[in-house]
Amino acid sequence: MSILVSVCVMMHSVSSVWLLIGESLEDSWIRNKEYGLNTLYGSIELEDGTFEADRTTKYITAFYWAVTTLATVGYGDVKGFTYAEYLFNMFVEFIGIAFFSFVMGSINNIFL
Fold it and tell me: What is the DSSP letter of 59?
């Protein structure tokens, strides 16, 4: 049970930081003019005529990114566009490898 809680806390934490990075940068995975989340899935019209994705869509997309990155699958459909996002992505990939090894070791200890 504690492994499941650890995995959920890790995915939530990583997705929250990914969301924070996307909200704070100009040309981020949320705000990119061509492939950003607002461009692809924007449903709330702003005063300047542009669209923005709702909070639920942003969090679910960030959580999806965290799951695929931590599981070392990384489909690439949600990706960063800035250096800060690239650096965080590499950091999360390394954390994902270590965390995956820890989880597999813990499961191995259960069966031994």
Answer: H
What DSSP designation does 78 have? S
Sequence-separated (6 or more) residues with CB below 8 Å from residue 111: none
Distance, in Å, from the CA atom of 94 to the CA atom of 96, rounded to the nearest integer, reads 5
- Mapped onto helix, strand or coil, the DSSP state of residue 62 is helix
In terms of phi and psi (left: phi > 0; alpha: psi -120 to 50; beta: otherwise), the region of 49 is left
Tokens standing for residue 25:
């940068």
Torsion sign, CA atoms 60, 65, 67, 68: positive
Q: Which tokens sit at 90? A: 């590499």
> Across the 112 residues of the chain, what is the mean pLDDT of every consecutive 10-residue run?
82 95 92 86 72 88 92 85 94 88 84 82
52's tokens: 């923005």
